[in-house]
Amino acid sequence: MAGKAKSALILGATRGIGKQIALTFAENGYKVCVAAKTTESTPRLPGTIHDVVTEIEEKGGEAFPARCDVRSEEDIRSTLSQCMQKFGGVDVAVYNAGAISWQKVAETPLRRWDLMNQVNARGAFCLVNLILPHMLEKKHGRLILVAPPVYNRFFKGKTPYAMSKVAMTVLVHGLANELAGVTISALWPATVIESHVTTLMKLPPCYMRKATIFADACLEIAQEESEILNGKALIDEDYLKTKGMTDFSKYRVDPEEEPNRMMPRNFPNLVVKEELDDKQITSKL
């Protein structure tokens, strides 16, 4: 990477997609803060922030670990402070931390919904709220939230989870109107991505892609110099196609079989006619 090395904060970077995002950014010259809650490896949750940093450093990259429970405003604030001290700033922040429970409303205890809301919606808002002043002062920065496009099928059978994730997408769409120089985008996978969870579920390899596809899409978003992606809810495969990629076979977990796409190929346009009218009242309704 030419010029001054850029820095990236990856929240939720211990394993799976988050770990791969951290590795991919480091391999492409970014100084990386590996932030997550796990500092001790267990059979249920193998791997730590320290393991990821060690792997980055062994490959010649620069990184440091930050213990961060995204439910804690002080943890996120402390993580950002460490980034400022060590890197002098943050060029890219990826919010990959997440809590998941695909259950119906009647099957979801309030404590479970509270957890998903705290980790998904509240944690993402907290990160964005705290990092924005820094990015706006520099008039540059890229924010990426792991969140889906808004469409009805996503709600079915997992409404409590969807509530917490779609709130993140609303943050992306809404905040985009308040930014200049800084951009915020949502990114979601087109297929199942190989992870610790899929390993526990013993999901057949033919259903999955490697986490490298998602990490590569994050990197492309981070390196987009224009503001064209501001406020966009993107799908990894579809976005990479706009960058000229046509062969996705390198991302297959099963080298012989392309996994089925789990996401729709087209999504609804959320813009209404009245939004385009030049009237003050439309911004309030």
UniProtKB/TrEMBL annotation:
<dbReference type="InterPro" id="IPR020904">
    <property type="entry name" value="Sc_DH/Rdtase_CS"/>
</dbReference>
<protein>
    <submittedName>
        <fullName>Hydroxysteroid dehydrogenase-like protein 2</fullName>
    </submittedName>
</protein>
<dbReference type="InterPro" id="IPR051935">
    <property type="entry name" value="HSDL2"/>
</dbReference>
<dbReference type="Pfam" id="PF00106">
    <property type="entry name" value="adh_short"/>
</dbReference>
<keyword id="KW-0560">Oxidoreductase</keyword>
<dbReference type="InterPro" id="IPR036291">
    <property type="entry name" value="NAD(P)-bd_dom_sf"/>
</dbReference>
<dbReference type="GO" id="GO:0016491">
    <property type="term" value="F:oxidoreductase activity"/>
</dbReference>
<dbReference type="InterPro" id="IPR002347">
    <property type="entry name" value="SDR_fam"/>
</dbReference>
